[in-house]
Structure formats: C-alpha cells, structure tokens
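User: Sequence in, structure out. Go.
Assistant: Echoing your sequence, followed by the structure tokens.
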Amino acid sequence: MAAARGLVERGRRAATRAARGAALALLTALAGLFAGAPARADLSDDAARVERMWSLSGARVARLPPIFIEHGRVRVVAIDPPPAGAAAVAGASGAAGASGAAGPAGAKAEECLTVVFLAPRTVEFTLEPDSLAGEPSALEGLVHRLRGRDPDDDRRIHSVAGAAAILRCGAAREGLRRVAVEVLSPRGAFDVVVAASSGPPERLESILPERVSGPIAPRGDPGRPAEPGPLDARVARAARRARAEGAPRVVPIDLRASSVGTGQFSVKLSEGCHRLDLMAEVPGAAVRRATDLDAEAREAGTGRLLDRDRSDAPDARLDFCLGEPGVVEVPFLGAAGPVKVVLSDAQWPMPPHVPGYFGARARGNLAFALQRRRAPAPRAQAIAEAVGAQGDTLVPVEVEPGRCYFAAAALVRGEMRALRISVELGDRAARDDAGERSEGAGVAFCSEIEESAAVRVSARGGSPVWVLSVWPMD
C-alpha cells in the first residue's frame, strides 16, 4: 500500500509540473504576441492604420509626404486621387502647388474622394477645400479674412483631437484638388491620407476611436464687465492702500473727460517715487459704455515713457520714480463719456544714498529698483559702483560674511530692450529682470561665509549705458 501511495504522489507531482510548464509556455506566447505591438501609437501609426483599413475595404489609398506648418501660415496642399493599381504622388507647397488631375480616365462619376489630415492630438487646425465653380476659392477667402471679413465660415472644417477629414463624391470631387490648412496652435506636423472609393469609406471615428471627443459646449456670454462702484469710495480706498504701504502724501487731482471718454493730465511732480491711480466716474444711465481706463505717463519735453497700463480693469495704475522734479503728462482713454476723472498721486520720498551724479534718469531708475522689490531704503553709501554698456559684464564685489546687500542696475541713457542683474555667491544665485517698461532691476543677497560675490549685468538694446550700485542693508 505504501508503494502504491508513493506512485500516486509521484504522479500528482509530475502532473503539477506539467501543468505549470504549460501555463508558463502560454504566458510566454502571449507576452511575445503583445510585445510585437507598440505600447504607444504615434502619428505615423495612426496614418498607417487608416491606410490599412481603407485598403481592406477596396479603396485606392495613398499617403502624401509629411508636412510641417507654423502658426499663422496657410499651407495649400495639392491632392491627386490615387491612380488604379499604383500609389499616387502628391505634393504640398506653400503656394498654390501643382494641381492634380481630377481622376484617372474611366473613373466612375459617382466615385468618392476622401482626404484625412492627422496631427498630434494637441494640435488645432482648420481645413478649407478648393472652390466649386462660381464660389470663392480658399485663397480668396483667406484674403477676405485678413481684410476683416469672414465669409462662409461653414466651409472651414475644424479639427477634433488633431484629426480632420473631407469627403466629396461625384462632381464635387473637383473641390478637393487643393486643400488650405491653417494651424491655430503654435505649430504642427501632419500625415495626409488620400482614398478613392466607390462609396464613402469607413468613418475616421471608428478607425481611431481614441481621437473621438464628446460634444463641445458653447462658449456662452460672460456678460458685462463688473461695475467699479462709486468714484468717491474708490478714491478713498486708493489713498488708504497707499498710506498703508508707507506713502506719506496722497494728492488727488480731477478733470472732466471729453465726450468720447478721453483726456490728459499734466502734473508737476516732485522727485521720488509715485503711484498714479486714475479712476473715472460711472454714469447712472442704464445704457452706457463700459468704464475701462487705459493710461500712460511720459516725461514732458522728452516724451520718455515712464509706465503704461492697458489692462482690462476699470481703473488704471502707473508706477515710476523721478530723479528730479518735473512735469509728467498722463493721457488716458476709456471713460464712459464726459465724466469726472480723478488722478490720485501717492508719493514716496527719494531713498537716501541713491547717487545723483549719474544723472536724474539713472537716479530715478535706481530708486524704482528698490521700490519695485519693496527693499528698505539704504542707510549707508554704496560699497561698489560700476558703469557698463551693451552685452554681459561681470563685476566682482567684496562682501562681509554674515551681512546682506542689495544690488541694483539702472539705465543711464539709450534704449533698453532687456536688462538683467544676477548675483552668484558660493553655490547660491539670485537674479532679477527689469519689466517690460522698467529701466531698473535689483536683487537682494546675503553672505554666509563668503567674502566675495560675482555680480553680472546683461543689457540689450540700442546703445544702452547702465550703472550698478551695491548697498549694504541692515
């Protein structure tokens, strides 16, 4: 009996080993089967799938050479129907291109022609086929749109998830000799598949279901702009905000705008930093223009732009610093007719130890670099100063371990397109870029054990000359 039980046990173990071996073989076979397919389909794979599925349905299919289009440029692609028994050769050009034949001789009059443009799913574009007889062409429509007119917007086909298709049957195939492609995204690469068939081929949505999206909700109406509120309350709020930020003096000035909501202040301002808040009265009439003030501040005489506000807010705000007293002109527009407009001037004094021997322009720009970074006023003379011009300039500065500093670079003369200041201290670095309309940049840094810092100033523009000042900070 023991021998029989041993034989039975050995048989069970053998059967178990055989079953495990069969399962392992099956898993290996399945792994090999799925390993042959790519884990992620790319643009070329999608185009190959469309080409294969349409070919299996009996259509004559050809793929055009890939194309690449930048935003804002219209590419006109010439389409040739695939000839019977051979792949078609079609070209694409930035102009009209060579127009293809309408179809091979003997083609059926009811034959359909389908063109598919495939791009990455994040690319948005439109297609517009060539015209039928007596209708404006795609190129003519483009000219109309550039001139501000937009006829027959329904002619354009908008992409969905990076794909768009055009189908024409019978005599309407003539309209697919050329297709205008306009990219709405920054740029896009395209694969183009052309098919000629006896009827409409399989829909693109069923071949590439991963590119199908749900319904697109309408944009809706955001409504009228928000009402800014009573003028007196806004003026008082601007004054409280400026005083909370340390402005010792706030001076309001008012005038009445023109009938179209425009006007200009001409104010004499002291040296130091200024914040000008422009606020317009809102009429009580139910039907009126929206209040959206846009303004800019310029030096009288030189016309140099100090600041500009073209935001969508009802009020305008201008920030700048003057190295010496002067007259500033503040033109504005956007008031709701001939209403009262108030200019609230919040004033901060010129920070001490900001040098004036480089000129009033440089002094104001250095002060604005401190004001922009909310840095405290320097309480000692600068430990380092330098003057530079166009390009990158490295200025080594000796520092004391355990102390903090503020470095500012400011334009003295010339025109500035870009200004950057950076400080390298050991393995740490800090930098600041001047704003679009600013002529000063500043950065704070602290030394731990280092005894030197590398200050780099990069200036680009029309013959710019700049000055650098480094102050110790308490």
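User: And one key feature?
Assistant: The chain has three domains: 43-209, 231-348, 360-473.
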